[in-house]
């Protein structure tokens, strides 16, 4: 493999984000391909026994096994790290593999985690169910309340874990304050940035230690593959995450890595247009529903904080209907263009009922505590014409009695 300019940090440091998204982390084989090569291989061959021994001992560069290194996957890791402004990145099989690895690689029995109560259902399961099984204490708080973070700290607190904006309540966490508080107490902050990606928000710039992703979402952006990623310092990635990943195996397939590489090439363009569409659609919907949770609208209680941290509003917002699940279902069933689906970040517009899908597993009490009501609907605004989306929603809102 030949290293291109995309591998030289002295060169890539000068590049702007759009260039990094196209060129960053690019390798080329002796064939000189323009598009990244897809290396579908589980293992590698060596010229002699001494070479393989040196590689496994860490004394020589080179691939040993695709659970540890793969050229296509490594290109993706280097590109994501460049976009994020991170020293290093490790790709994961899924977004939840990324969240799980980011936590368990650094936690042991007797440690304590402070986490946001408003979170994706599976992330809450990690905090509420998985961590306690291994003797890891957890506390969930209202992450919008800066004072709650400080109050929750214990002598054994090792990690702050949260997402911003939160799924699906769109709560915004004050990155600079919370990450600064964590560092002041020697606590590692782990931020789920899937709703934004580095195209809209870069938590490391606000003091975050670790950024985790479902690359399934905006990075792929077209609903094709599952993927995840964890970014951080070289010390964290190599000394804490890599041993966990090497021995537990939540690895990303080369094919899925290649697909996400292609998605990154258009990420900034898609996110910009989807944000514009989401703002226009949100402005229309706002006058028709009892409550809208949209960080790009002035009605959002944390609109100003979102504007300080995010380059744009993103593609996703939620609405809350007074008629509960029955009215929410009427609206969903009346849609003609927008698909009923629990995915997000897709170029297609998608809507779902979180209480019966993404957050069904956390139970009614936890849903109520985090603000996921029976009347809540989450909308991922895609790349269709915004006026077509508005017309579809107009019909569906009318059918639902709104």
Largest sheet: 7 strands, mixed
CATH superfamily of the largest domain: Type I PLP-dependent aspartate aminotransferase-like (Major domain)
For this structure, the CATH topology of the largest domain is Aspartate Aminotransferase, domain 2
Helix/strand class: alpha/beta
* CATH architectural arrangement of the largest domain: 3-Layer(aba) Sandwich
The total of beta strands comes to 14
What is the gyration radius calculated from CA atoms? 22 Å
Main sheet strand line-up: 3-9-8-7-6-4-5
Give the termini distance in whole angstroms.
Answer: 59 Å
Q: What percentage of amino acids are in beta strands?
A: 5-15%
| H and E string | EHHEHHEHEHEHEHEEHEHHHEHEHEEHEH
Task: Describe the model.
The structure is a single chain. Helix 4 packs parallel to helix 11 (254-264). This protein starts with a strand and ends with a helix. It has 402 residues and is of the alpha/beta class. The mean pLDDT is 95. The chain has helices at 9-12, 17-23, 49-56, 71-84, 95-104, 121-133, 146-152, 175-184, 216-220, 234-248, 254-264, 267-286, 303-309, 324-333, 364-370, 386-399; strands at 2-3, 27-28, 88-92, 112-116, 137-141, 157-163, 188-192, 210-214, 228-232, 291-293, 316-320, 339-340, 350-352, 376-380. The strands form three sheets. It has a seven-stranded mixed sheet, with helices on both faces. A five-stranded mixed sheet has the order 10-11-14-13-12. It has 16 helices and 14 strands. The chain folds into two domains: 2-264, 3-Layer(aba) Sandwich (Aspartate Aminotransferase, domain 2), CATH 3.40.640; 267-399, Aspartate Aminotransferase, domain 1. It is globular.
